[in-house]
């Protein structure tokens, strides 16, 4: 049984659940303003999408506390910065994992409230860091043409 709709003549036709998936995908930037959504396709029983995380360093720590005191030279009192200490920044994690988890939770809640289906997603998901333009173009093309290849897709059941 297709969860999100069916492929008709190489085009995905969304059912109500597929429309919920589309809505949840579009809402990701509302919860994670640092992202831009790129190519995306809903298939009958899975999805493919590209999420671009803006303004992050590719490596290194981003959540840290600033130093508030300089080291003590000999017997002097500490020199204090003119900055009030900031608490550790808790809140929404900015990882792909947290984005995918939130996306999947929203859809799963809808299924549980509106259908007899309680398990929507496989346990894990596949992620890939796109490192260059050539890789981006190949992955974007794969996503765009996925509905036309549905009959030979390994997830076609």
TrEMBL record:
InterPro entries: RAYT_transposase, Transposase_17, Transposase_17_sf. It comes from the Bacteria. One of its GO terms (biological process) is DNA transposition. GO terms for molecular function: sequence-specific DNA binding; transposase activity. Residues 1-146 form the Transposase IS200-like domain. PANTHER family: REP-ASSOCIATED TYROSINE TRANSPOSASE. This is Transposase IS200-like domain-containing protein. The lineage of its organism: Bacteria, Pseudomonadati, Pseudomonadota, Betaproteobacteria, Nitrosomonadales.
